Amino acid sequence: MSRFDKDWVRRNGVYVALALLLLVNIVITDNFVSAGTLRLQLIQVAPVLLVALGMALVIGTEGIDLSVGAVMAIAAALVPLYIGYGTVVSLLIAVASGAVTGVLAGVLVAKVGVQPIIATLGIMVAGRGLANVFGGEIKSIRDDGMVELGSGDVLGIPYVVLIAAVVAALAWFLVRRSTYGRQLVAIGGNKRAAELAGLPVKRVLITTYVICGLLAALAGVLMAARSQASDPTKLGLLVELSAITAVVIGGTPLSGGQVRIAGTIAGALLMQLITATLIFHDIPDSTAQVAQAVIVVAAVYVQLGRKKSRKKVTT
Q1: Where would I find the beta strands (DSSP E) of 78-162?
Q2: 258-291 per-position pLDDT tens digit
Q3: How far is CA 287 from the centre of its chain?
Q4: What are the C-alpha distances in Å from 166 to residues 172, 220, 252?
Q5: E strands of the chain, at which residues?
Q6: Is 184 helix (H, G, I), strand (E, B) or coil?
Q7: What is the structure's pLDDT at 187?
Q8: Residue 125 CB: number of other CB atoms within 10 A?
Q9: How sure is the predictor about 314, in pLDDT bands with cuts at 50, 70 and 90?
């Protein structure tokens, strides 16, 4: 295989894998081709996609955010606490909690100089504890507005899917068409050079972690609305692994400097389809987690190959 062919496979492998897995399921999985199956898969992938989009922006800055699962749990735990003040108020407070944790992570990384993995690991541990303080135990959410948000639709398109699609479009616009997106990519490519060029490095980093926190909190609210309950112990557990996997196999390098929104969407869909395929064929869910870990290692290996290829070209 020529170098061109290898690079093409590396850039588009996630789309090829997604198409192949779809084809396999169409052939071997009973009742796979149905509106109900499509609707269920899109509803289930929507919260993970929201988290993955925020994670893609953070990874684009050469960072990582391990706190997204805990942020989801905090937001979900806040919903039943404030639902008595109305659907909109409880939703805004819950989503705003993601901005607070995002500011904390951004300040630790951009101004204090803490490594992203350490800063967000600390927030993850503290955040899960805080979610338990707010929630304590599983609480049901008895509110018509939240039920409609989690189960309702517009012209047959579930609200959760519609929200994820709008956010994905906004993320694409931010990365490809806004000054913020260009600055983010430049900072991820070479932070020191970006500082020397006069770019607002600290402001962009803090903004990126805030966006990631907001999207994680929104995902937590949507999951709570869909299940009509908040579970601070389990909600969002290991979602960071799914999000990072979707971003990496979607072509965004962990070394920063690039953000592939379309690839991230395809990566999230591929991860959801892998999980669904295993469930369809009565394979334990724990196997899906092993599959995700293997895919992450394989994707990072492919990225290393791409990096070596670029070095050979430039030397």
Answers
A1: 139-140, 153-154, 157-158
A2: 999 999 999 999 989 988 888 888 877 677 677 7
A3: 21
A4: 10, 17, 21
A5: 139-140, 153-154, 157-158, 229-230
A6: helix
A7: 96
A8: 13
A9: very low
